[in-house]
Amino acid sequence: MRRAAIFCVLSVLCAGIFAGLIPFRVANADQAPGAPAASGAVAVAMKNVEFHLTDNIIVHVATLNGKMTSTHGEIPVLDDKRSFVLDIDSAKVAVSMTALANDLNDYVFAKPDAPLKKLNATTQGQLLVVKGLLVSKGGIPFETDGTLSVTPEGMIRVHTQKVKALKLPVKGLMDMLGIDTANLLTTKKVEGVTVDKDDLILDPSKILPPPELTGHLVSIDIVGGQILLGFKSSEGPAKQSAVVNSCPAHNYLTFKGGSVRFGKLTMSDTDLELIDSDPGDSFDFSIDHYKDQLVAGYAKMTRRGGLCVQVPDFNKVKPNGNSQQKGNPKP
Fold this sequence. Notes:
The protein is mainly β.
């Protein structure tokens, strides 16, 4: 029972952190190393994590430092992904073509009246190739090839080089979309996507599911068939110290300071570290199913009163919360 209670608390914290790529803040000179300033924010750090924003939208977080802050003036609630914002100080994130296609279909253009449907994404060298159906034109198939760059405001610019509709060349993106469809995008009826002449402008904070991720995008590249994103603080150079881990780990999620509510419990002066129990591969973590992962893991208290939680990968946990890995202690 004691272990189940610990897991419940840990799980809530974990969920909040992953939900959006996590945040963190500077410590005062008289604070413990790695603790956030007394602002209520929860310092967050991640390393080598496959983060499930949804069951089908998964991003790889190579590294991340930031803070998690409430959107309602209270404390973040991990069971409500819209109750907090993940404010990134620095991060390196990779998005696969599968994750991008799922995000476009299941989130960005998921509304019934969205102008584009059945989208598919691939890469050809440094080109992003997107295929799909133009619903506003009777469902005709289209294909665009474009390059990716970052605007001074930290947005993603997709510069179209080739456009085809019904496999025939089209003058440009605007010509293919037409005034009505371009208007639909420009008036922000499709969240996070606008049109600038023949380019699409994507807002990184709006094109992914909650929690909202803020931070300044500074780089974007296509490497090995994935889109690599580099973030820095939107408030300029980060001034805070890095979060200090108490538990030895290769792949992890760490939360320090502030308060977080999960379920019926609230953790104050948060000191929680979720550690991949199988460091041989990335830490596969699902915010929507964190309870199953925590129940299948086990925890150890540190001398400072914090918790080190060994957590199995989500893709190695059975629906009943039992780990499929051999040698793990049973709850």
